[in-house]
Amino acid sequence: MFSRRRKFGPPAKSAWAKRVFAALASSIAVLLLLPLGAFAGAGAAAAAPNPDLETVLNGSRQRIEKLDYRISGRITKVDAGGKRTNYKLLAKAHWFPDGLLLLSVISGPGTDKTSLLVHMTATGKLTIEAMLPGAKASSVVPFEHWNDPVVGTDFSYEDMVEDQFFWKDQELQPSQKFGTRDCFVLKSASGPQDRTNYSSVTSWIDRSIIFPVQVVKTLRGGQQKQFLYYGLRQTSGTWSASQIEAKSPGKPGSSMLVIEGGTPKANLTRKNFDLSQPTAPAQPAK
What we know:
Blueprint: H1 36-47, H2 51-65, E1 68-78, E2 84-96, E3 99-107, E4 114-120, E5 126-131, E6 139-140, E7 169-178, E8 181-189, E9 198-206, E10 211-219, E11 224-235, E12 238-247, E13 254-263
Antiparallel strand pairs: 1-2, 1-13, 2-3, 3-4, 4-5, 5-6, 7-8, 8-9, 9-10, 10-11, 11-12, 12-13
């Protein structure tokens, strides 16, 4: 799958690309100069787990680790003047023993398709490959291109997966309401071991279904991107969003990823993620 790679060059004018962890580590400082009885109680309190944090992380990670879907839909870019450009989207994902594979195939008006393959390990480490129009082999996307826009939209390469839930540094903020929904607020901070353009990601997660309704990502330069999740629904026991909007606060325009059909239990295998093979369309949603 990862063979026949070529050097990844600057995206061609018509080339564009698109849009489910590790256990928390805790340490206790041992004060060797004090008697055991003087600090045993404080050490036990420091080690006590936060049940709400465990609920959010375990629920979010398990949701991703159960992914096995095909979807079809579109990505719509709305520019500052209100003009809409639609791009066809076919995607599929499955969690394997070595992590998640996500394959997206995107095609737009008058353009050849671009295929994007993202592999995420259980520690949130990403590998991204792309097959650009006219190419006969896939190429590894270097890290400096991970924040490039997919199809010229507000989604970037690394926005395709929710790797933030697998980062080591996780902190639960005070709960908030988002609209009518009661939400956990989880701040995920990247560390030196995390290869990402984001310094932190804050997720508003519905307490009743453990699914995000809003995500705000902060780039290392300080700029932010907002992601809003609409049309939450449960199919075959799995929660998902029918639409995801991405935009940059203070800037005109936005992008909408719309799911029009899909199969939540697709029984995918590794051969379904060969970039050289055609992608079958998903069945209409039931």
